[in-house]
Design goal:
The complex is a heterodimer of chains A (398) and B (171). Chain A contains 15 helices and 2 strands. Chain A is mostly helical and 398 residues long. Chain A has one domain. The longest helix of chain B has 26 residues. Classes of the chains: A mainly alpha (398), B mainly alpha (171).
């Protein structure tokens, strides 16, 4: 019965495809899968925006949206109906294009932003047998299409003919290029251990249990530090606090999409969030076992519930961080990427190599753990050496 | 020749022609990104997954951005008034057509060309990785060394010069 529930979407797809003639099947199957992604993830996005607003409200000791429910009734849903009027407002707002703007590029930028993000969903495994395109080089595909987002950001910033837009685009591109390196290098350690760039192979490598505990990569020294690096870099890649300099409201209004309104703004918003979900999904696949259960006695829960559960949990941590941490400064951001995360990621690759070649007993835990801890302490001290951070003195309160 | 191949080839060639004919340099750079994507799509249609993805990763993701940055940092925003196509373009077309015909004829009648079309070898990513790490490990290391040297050189050029050193060098 639980197997049925696990494969419910796969079976539904086969059932639906059964209605069309044999000739059209190769065309119809991807269409159904694509429409599935186009329905599920924007819907997920709209729910998450409400969670984010309410969650940040709760953390900051205020209410957040709590009024909108089902129209013409007394049902209020604690504000969870808010996404519908928000979306309608976005769709019906006037679309303002600056007179000096480069019209064509200004129009194309949100589209170019969304396409690579949607493409990256095609390689993610959402559940058992639920991968759209299981490429041999799936991981490479993900990073390749992710790199195309930078072009969209540049197009938006440059075509607006606004200094804040251009500054925001420059910041965004500098940040994305810098943090892409630790992001990819932390994924390389996984590829080294698994020996494959195929995402389903990476999950299969984590899908077995010792004493009922899963062999997720995050439970090893290299996997743990790799996951931490990946997590920080994915925060920066999706322009979230504390790395939200590209759209810092108090400094440059809204960064590269300052001059966008209405539906185009909504597309940027959607693209940013879908990009965040995709990169978290990749992190889950690489380090948190994808759709597998953490304990063998929980393996009966359907795989897609595990995937979306993990996705929601990590998004919650992202929201938590956004509500808690202040924004970094540009030089701190760059120093952190190039002087701390990059060397640590390189050392992590070395540690993954040692882990692969040492015999599987407690000694390799000791050696790898000591190497990572030592590198972390030394790099951290090196980064903080010239910072002159002392006790903060409050002049006015003395 | 399938329909998909014709479409991608047309897009690639049109984008490449746009790169040469537009006046605004940033537009040219963006059109070049389209051309790179078209080339990547062509690779993918030939089942060369790795090369196709690497093309997107390196050319669209990095080189196009690099070119765009170089344009923004070195030039002012104004575009040249006169067209890039000069009056001598007819002669240019004639010369290039002649060169193309000659090269095409030479290639088609060459004895080095195998008469039977060879079966395309399957090159999964794993084989490429194995070859890079065993047979071609020395070239790989040399390329890595050259790139590292280039990067260190770039850092040294970009380094802030010490104020005490350039006592007389103020412009």
């Amino acid at each position: 019965m639980f197997d049925q529930l696990d494969q419910i979407f796969v079976n539904a797809l086969h059932w639906l495809v059964g209605f069309v003639p044999e000739v059209l099947r190769p065309l119809v199957t991807p269409l159904i899968c694509i429409s599935f992604i186009l329905m599920v993830f924007p819907a997920f996005f709209s729910i998450i925006t409400i969670f984010e607003r309410k969650g940040i409200g709760r953390i900051q000791n205020r209410y957040g949206p709590n009024r909108v429910g089902i129209p013409f009734t007394k049902i209020r849903l604690a504000g969870f109906g808010q996404f519908l009027p928000d979306g309608l407002k976005m769709l019906t707002k006037e679309d303002i294009v600056p007179r000096a703007a480069d019209k064509l590029v200004h129009f194309l930028a949100p589209v170019v932003m969304l396409i690579p993000v949607l493409l990256s969903y095609s390689v993610l495994p959402f559940g058992k047998n639920m991968t759209l395109a299981d490429y041999d080089a799936g991981l490479l595909f993900f990073f390749a299409v992710g790199g195309a987002v930078e072009i969209a950001v540049f197009m938006a910033g440059w075509s607006s003919r606004n200094k804040y837009s251009l500054l925001g685009a420059m910041r965004a591109i500098a940040q994305m290029v810098s943090y892409e390196i630790p992001l990819i290098l932390s994924a390389v350690s996984v590829v080294m251990i698994v020996g494959s760039l195929k995402l389903t192979d990476i999950i299969a490598h984590q899908n077995h249990y010792t004493f009922g505990i899963a062999h997720w990569h995050v439970f090893t020294p290299w996997g743990f530090i790799g996951f931490v690096l990946f997590f920080i870099a994915s925060l920066a890649e999706s322009n979230r606090t504390p790395f939200d300099l590209p759209e810092a409201e108090s400094e440059i209004i809204a960064g590269y999409f300052t001059e966008y309104s209405g539906f185009k703004f909504a597309l940027f918003f959607l693209g940013e969030y879908l990009g965040m979900f995709a990169i978290i999904g990749l992190g889950i696949t690489l380090f948190l076992g994808g759709w597998t259960a953490p304990f063998s006695f929980l393996a009966w829960i359907p795989s897609w519930i595990w995937f979306f559960g993990k996705l929601t949990a990590i998004i919650f941590v992202f929201i938590w961080i956004r509500a808690t941490l202040p924004r970094l400064r540009m030089d701190q951001l760059m120093n952190f990427a190039w002087k701390f995360m990059l060397p640590l990621a390189l050392i992590n690759i070395l540690v993954a190599g040692i882990w692969h070649y040492m015999a599987a007993d407690w000694q390799r835990w000791l050696v790898c753990g000591a190497l990572i801890a030592g590198a972390y302490v030394l790099l951290g001290r090196g980064l903080m050496q010239n910072q002159k951070l002392g006790k903060r003195i409050y002049r006015y309160a003395e | 020749m399938t329909l998909a191949l014709i479409i991608t080839a047309l897009v690639t060639v049109l984008a490449a022609a746009t790169v040469m004919s537009l006046r605004n340099l940033v537009h040219c750079a963006l059109a070049m990104a389209v051309a790179f994507s078209g080339v990547a799509a062509l690779y993918l249609q030939l089942n060369a997954e790795f090369v196709g993805f690497a093309e997107i990763l390196v050319y669209v993701g990095a080189i196009a951005i690099l070119i765009v940055f170089a344009i923004l940092l070195t030039r002012s925003g104004e575009t040249p008034e006169k067209s890039v196509l000069t009056s001598g373009w007819l002669a240019g077309v004639a010369v290039s057509a002649m060169v193309f015909t000659l090269l095409g004829w030479a290639v088609l009648t060459s004895s080095a060309l195998p008469k039977e079309i060879a079966i395309a070898p399957a090159a999964p990513v794993k084989n490429i990785g194995d070859a890079l790490m065993s047979k071609f490990v020395l070239p790989l290391e040399i390329v890595g060394l050259v790139l590292t040297a280039a990067m260190i050189g770039a850092v040294i050029i970009a380094l802030k010069e010490d104020k005490k050193d350039n006592s007389g060098g103020q412009p």
